[in-house]
Fold this sequence. Notes:
The structure is a homodimer of 329-residue chains.
Chain A: E1 7-12, H1 18-26, E2 32-37, H2 40-48, E3 54-61, E4 65-66, H3 68-75, E5 85-93, E6 97-100, E7 141-144, H4 146-151, H5 153-159, E8 164-167, H6 171-179, E9 186-190, H7 192-197, E10 201-204, E11 214-221, E12 239-249, H8 257-267, E13 272-279, E14 287-294, H9 304-315, E15 318-328
Helix pairs in contact in A: 8-9
Amino acid sequence: MAAPGKRSVSFLGPVASYTHQATRQVFSEDEWDFRPVVTIDDVFDQVQDGQVSAGVVPFENSTNGSVVFTLDLLADREGLYPDITVDGETYVDVHHCLVGHRHMQLEEEGDGSGVRTPTASDPRPSKPRAQPVGSLKHIQRLYSHPQAFGQCNHFISTYLKGVEIFEVSSTSKAAEIVSHDTTGTWAAISSELAASVHGLSVLGRSIEDRDDNKTRFLIIGTNPSIPDDWALVRKALAEAGSKSMVSFTVPHSSPGALADVLSCFREFNLNLTSINSRPSLLAPFQYIFFIEFEGHRHDDPDGRVGGALNRISQVAESWRWLGSWKRFR
Amino acid sequence: MAAPGKRSVSFLGPVASYTHQATRQVFSEDEWDFRPVVTIDDVFDQVQDGQVSAGVVPFENSTNGSVVFTLDLLADREGLYPDITVDGETYVDVHHCLVGHRHMQLEEEGDGSGVRTPTASDPRPSKPRAQPVGSLKHIQRLYSHPQAFGQCNHFISTYLKGVEIFEVSSTSKAAEIVSHDTTGTWAAISSELAASVHGLSVLGRSIEDRDDNKTRFLIIGTNPSIPDDWALVRKALAEAGSKSMVSFTVPHSSPGALADVLSCFREFNLNLTSINSRPSLLAPFQYIFFIEFEGHRHDDPDGRVGGALNRISQVAESWRWLGSWKRFR
């Protein structure tokens, strides 16, 4: 931590991504050099290699669930990231916009049917929360990240019926692609920041299905034992407890072992806050599990976290402490 | 079950999909009318409405993990599928092919570099298991389902560098799209069956990264209390125990409740075989959990399953038994 000059933080870019917003919530650009990178893998690589002091990656969205790419990197099946720990988390309210080029001649024609087509599975479809800004009849292509499509179903099925869908790597990449459109018929779902960066018009605001759409981001680093001095805002905020994450596998020959590991947390009265699993890739339908629980490995006055980790080491086939961090209100 | 004539089974199509293969493993076409449908939702709709007696849907792949669309339908947040239960499972070995049109003039030029580009995260990339059949230099577009792309990384990054990727709804849909290509430059990742159905050439066989790539499919129905007489092969096979699935939510104000529910299985010595979670969509970062465990609700001589379900009803906020089924070797 004694390196001269600014330290660096890498995050899933491009500029104006939601991960960029998350990074701005936690790190000050006065003190940190911001490095947008292309993939979540790149963030992990740069943190592990020591090119940067911290990284920010998406972990889960309140509508769509876990980001499996991040879980797979935390699983670290090939041992590429031995030093990486989770050192913090932050939440971003996700408000998607429809962005593109306005169609001037159609501007007067209203905003589409405003009605979703009833289907067998959804005979009385709910209305979308937002209305378009002007006509969308000129839109023939829609670009975005798969997660964003999943979060804007009502708007798309009401106002963009029959439009061709193109899945790309990020919402800000989608806005960039649409900025190169010469036909005026392409649109993207992205943040308002991305629209402004790429010179696009906002054709609809807050088009997400739910008004409580949030994404949780993890801050990763390689200095788990050092007090987290990166937290821009921590001085101003009250602590709201701690969280830790572990991954583990269980012996295939003893399927009861999963319950054994889970009972370690109960034995030490540690609340579980999330469970995820991914294929172990050692054999079909064996898993690596991820547990988050309340408690901090390095701030553990009654020894409950240490006790639980010790028990896990006895019953799991393999396990890894992935980090502990303070939560802030 | 007294309906005259053939009963029907719907499955995620189109014809020649991997789900079609799964359906053929369990149901006899002599006795059942096979109905391919467009989405997993359609399978659930037709089973719930009684249009068909059974449905077959993908549940998890040994490389890519869970199929979240199926989990979300089993979550049944809007109460559309009150009568649906899981009545069985079957596994399909997944062997992907690269299919398209051969390029005759390039046929002599060999099969690409055969070398993957090293990256920071993968400095010594492993070689793909399969080689192309002839040259792939003419391929400019590649269509497939996102899960299939995820299972063929090595082959794609070795032999199809820089090819444009198009994600579509199924591997057999991808083959169908490529069959309409007039440029000869499009290819799909699909099954060999789909290639033959759509009159395409096989440009590579078994191009998946792992030779133990399997998908598990669930058989759903609405007759959980009736003996499962649909099993084509059960007479010839030895039973290998039973499995059950439940979903549940826990009170938000009592985060220890998750451990309480999990300990119900341990208390009755029931082995957990899988855990999944999806957003509850009731509030951000609350979840609906899915547990599979060994045991059968209607074949429960020592009352352990009944005991555990009774305990779950006391500690979960809400819960649902989703089905029990026999496993066969």
